[in-house]
Write a structure and sequence with these properties.
The complex is a heterodimer.
Chain A: E1 13-20, E2 23-28, H1 29-48, H2 58-78, H3 86-104, H4 115-137, H5 155-199, H6 202-246
Antiparallel strand pairs in A: 1-2
Helix pairs in contact in A: 1-2, 1-3, 2-3, 2-6, 3-6, 4-5, 4-6, 5-6
Chain B: H1 25-158, H2 164-176
Helix pairs in contact in B: 1-2
Classes of the chains: A mainly alpha, B mainly alpha.
Chain lengths: 250, 177
């Protein structure tokens, strides 16, 4: 049972909180980790800058780097007009990054391995793009689906493809993050269980167990990269989608 | 999770793949919205303005410092230029004073030399005059002495005093000779 690679994704009710309609909402392990992420991010940014030093210390430097990293990403892909979405993109990036990184600590729960979470986040981006796009550009927002310089006879096909790709964005956006995190954690667990299985099989088993152990070490390093990269990819795709809402004319 | 057994799972979905278990969706959505909104408000109202203002202050401080450094450099450049100019002026003035002094000194020396020469010339002329006078006087004396000596010699030789006018004529003739 301890080696069941799916068990780590189990949502566990810790205590009931409210009842909405017929649905009991309980405080879960997932909720606890989300709350932990909020606390960690806030402490990192506010605690790190507590001294407001002109010459930053390590933690303040890290906080400033994170700020400027997201700011540069957003400004370079959505322009200075996109900076009004800076808190949104920053919250998305740090929230996902913190959840991914916390999930890498053994015995923890990874909130982003649940598709409902990543789908909700990506749909919030999709709706933001739609609402802001129509609010700012009105019907010109439809220019997004009509690239310039396309011959009239293939225009219907192009528009169909553009609309389809636009509508599939939240799906790819959410599944990319969810699938990466899920697959990584299953792989880690599977290889880790090999260590247990082999080391139980005498001396040669012990020797053989070093191989999956080395793999788990390497995979953990890879997962660390993936944890960061997926948060970054989610953030930069958000920036690109927001750019479409701000400048729909391509 | 290692501390929880399968018997504690949420009701009736034993074996279902947890990420696709719809009974957990409501609670996850609920908590996600709360966590995300709380984090968004904390970021937008507290953390980001704070970090942003720190970075902005630093930028401002750096550009201010650079500007003041540039103005200080301009000031020091001006001071150096003024110093160079003062030095050149002083040098020129020293040169002028030296020249002037040398000229006045030369002129004064010339004047005093001329004066001295004039005095010397005058003295020389006086001396020459004195010499001439002395010479004339001496010559006059010589004539008197010569006349007296002639008279005495003639008196000794002839025994009688010669005629004064004859002696004078003879002395004059021999002096001329």
């Amino acid at each position: 049972m301890a080696t069941d690679p799916i068990h780590q994704f189990q949502i566990i009710d810790l205590f009931p909180v409210v009842k909405i309609g017929h649905t009991e909402i309980a405080f879960t392990n997932s909720a606890a980790y989300m709350a932990l992420a909020v606390v960690v991010i806030t402490l990192f940014l506010v605690g790190g800058t507590a001294k407001r030093a002109l010459v930053p210390g390590r933690l303040q430097s890290a906080a400033e780097l994170t700020y400027e990293f997201v700011a540069t990403t957003l400004r370079s892909s959505a322009g200075s007009e996109g900076m009004k979405f800076f808190p949104f993109v920053f919250t998305l990036f740090t929230f996902i990054l913190a959840l991914n990184l916390i999930g890498l600590i053994p015995y923890t729960f990874t909130v982003t391995t649940h598709v409902i979470i990543t789908a909700t986040l990506s749909i919030s981006v999709f709706l933001t793009v739609l609402v802001y796009g129509f609010w700012k550009n009105g019907l010109h927002f439809f220019n997004l689906f009509v690239p310039k310089g396309i011959p009239i006879y293939i225009l219907p096909l192009i528009v169909f493809i553009e609309v389809l790709s636009f509508l599939s964005r939240p799906i790819s956006h959410s599944v990319r993050l969810f699938a990466n995190m899920l697959a990584g954690h299953i792989t880690l667990k599977v290889f880790a269980s090999f260590i247990i299985l082999l080391s139980g099989a005498g001396f040669f088993g012990m020797v053989g167990a070093t191989l999956p152990l080395a793999l788990v070490v390497a995979l953990t390093a890879l997962e660390l990269l993936v944890a960061f990269l997926q948060a970054y990819v989610f953030a930069i795709l958000t920036c690109i989608y927001l750019n479409d809402a701000i400048h729909p004319g391509h | 999770m290692a501390t929880n057994s399968h018997t504690e799972q949420p009701s009736g979905h034993k074996g279902a793949f947890p990420p696709f278990n719809p009974t957990t969706f409501a609670s996850q959505l609920f908590w996600l919205v709360i966590a995300f909104v709380v984090l968004y408000v904390l970021m937008a109202k507290v953390a980001l303005p704070r970090v942003g203002s720190i970075i902005e202050n630093r930028q401002k401080r750096i550009s201010d410092d650079l500007a003041s450094a540039a103005s200080l450099k301009a000031e020091s450049d001006a001071a150096i230029a003024a110093y160079e100019k003062a030095l050149a002026d002083a040098r020129a003035r020293a040169q002028a004073i030296a020249n002037e002094t040398r000229d006045t000194q030369t002129a004064a020396a010339e004047v005093s030399r001329k004066k001295l020469e004039g005095e010397l010339n005058a003295k020389l002329a006086d001396a020459e005059k004195t010499i001439a006078a002395t010479k004339t006087a001496a010559m006059a004396n010589v004539r008197g002495i010569a006349a007296e000596a002639t008279k005495a010699i003639v008196e000794r030789l002839t025994g009688k005093a010669p005629d004064d006018s004859a002696v004078d004529a003879a002395v004059s003739a021999s002096l001329k000779g």
